[in-house]
Design a protein that fits this description.
Elements: H1 10-38, E1 62-67, E2 72-80, E3 89-93, H2 104-112, E4 116-120, H3 138-151, E5 157-162, H4 164-175, E6 180-186, H5 194-197, H6 204-212, H7 216-227, H8 237-248, H9 252-268, E7 282-287, H10 310-320, E8 325-329, H11 336-339, H12 341-351
Parallel strand pairs: 3-4, 3-5, 5-6, 6-7, 7-8
Antiparallel strand pairs: 1-2, 2-4
């Protein structure tokens, strides 16, 4: 006679099902964690105040108060003195999606070489005032910067300017040529007139609506695809969180509004038509993988590939700026000073006039 096979109890069946579900859940979570780790990051992170309260800079930050457009505004800045001065001052001008803190390695390099380094945050950016009402122009930002340097006793300086800071530096050199010792433009935007090339205009209100949607994920994707040719490194992430943190904080609206006004300034005030008027020694340091062009996503599909072609734009700028020198980094993008600090700073120190 065959032995009788006992049917599994209901409790045992339920226990086996539960164990199976737990195992499957763990596997799914593990897979999700692996997928998350493969991404550059997520949208969680710190919240900062509208003037980047809570975010630490690499050097002490001072504040310069000035009256502008019937209100008192304050420019945050770092003023770093070298251990062995060479008698020269370098002024570092940040870009639209950057702050003076992103110049950390350049400040170290220049002060080691004997330069006094002044790195301001422009009005509307980072740790500086974000007014509820302000008419932004590169002329106004140049005047603000000139007032800061005058207050600090700097009568002549070398301007080292990145991205949007390049547009400001060109305007400054046109307004104050005698006080500009040298112009160093690091992947400046404004080497072309996007409006004339077919990028349509949008209103400040539309810019504002776009800026209210700013997130770390959006910043990261844009920078990875536009600045770094599809590559990402962990050391870029703090600068993403620096920007995104202001949009998570209590001052999100005023941050977005000022950003909208600044985008309108950049789009409507090209400096490219005045390159021939520059009369100061100029050095162009260009990462060729950069494809930055303001409003490119708004342009018709057939126009987009013609925008932000930095190898071509850099050569045209060199031809138009009298006596300009050009150094290209074929494998670098929008921020060569951050991507390959060693190569960038070697070229920078070699290119500074003596």
């Amino acid at each position: 006679m065959k032995p009788m096979r006992r049917k599994p109890s209901i409790v045992r069946t339920l226990m086996l099902s539960l164990v199976s579900c737990i195992a499957m859940s763990c596997a799914l979570h593990a897979h999700a964690d692996e997928a998350s780790a493969a991404q550059p990051g997520n949208d969680d992170g710190p919240a900062y105040g509208p003037e980047l309260q809570g975010f630490d800079y690499p050097y002490p930050v001072a504040s310069f108060a000035l009256t502008s457009q019937r209100q008192v505004v304050r420019m945050a800045y770092m003023d770093v003195h070298p251990p062995h001065p060479n008698g020269r001052t370098a002024v570092l001008l940040h870009g639209k999606n950057f702050c003076s803190a992103t110049w950390k390695q350049t400040i170290e390099t220049l002060t080691d070489a004997g330069y006094r380094v002044i790195a301001p945050d422009q009005i509307g950016f980072c740790k500086s005032t974000k007014p509820a009402r302000y008419q932004y122009s590169f002329q106004q930002l140049a005047r603000n910067t000139h007032a800061l340097l005058t207050a600090l006793g700097v009568s002549r300086a070398t301007l080292i300017a990145h991205s949007t800071g390049g547009m400001l530096a060109v305007r400054y050199a046109l307004m104050y040529p005698r006080e500009t010792e040298q112009l160093v433009l690091v992947n400046p935007i404004g080497l072309e007139d996007w409006k004339a090339k077919g990028v349509p205009s949008i209103s400040v209100d539309d810019w504002y609506a776009r800026e209210l949607k700013t997130s770390a994920d959006g910043i990261r994707r844009y920078e990875m695809n536009t600045y770094y040719a599809g590559h990402w490194r962990a050391d870029y992430e703090p600068w993403v969180q620096m920007l995104a943190g202001m949009y998570r904080g209590p001052g999100k609206d005023v941050v977005a509004w000022n950003s909208a006004l600044l985008y309108d300034m950049i789009y409507t005030q090209p400096v490219v038509y005045e390159f021939e008027q520059l009369r100061v020694p100029t050095l162009l340091l260009i990462g060729d993988k950069d494809t930055t062009a303001i409003g490119k996503d708004l342009a018709p599909p057939d126009i987009r590939p013609t925008l932000g072609r930095y190898p071509d734009l850099a050569k045209l700028a060199k031809e138009r700026i009298e006596g300009a020198k050009l150094v290209e980094f074929p494998e670098l993008g929008h921020a060569p000073q951050m991507q390959d600090p060693q190569a960038f700073h070697k070229a920078l120190l070699e290119g500074l006039t003596h």
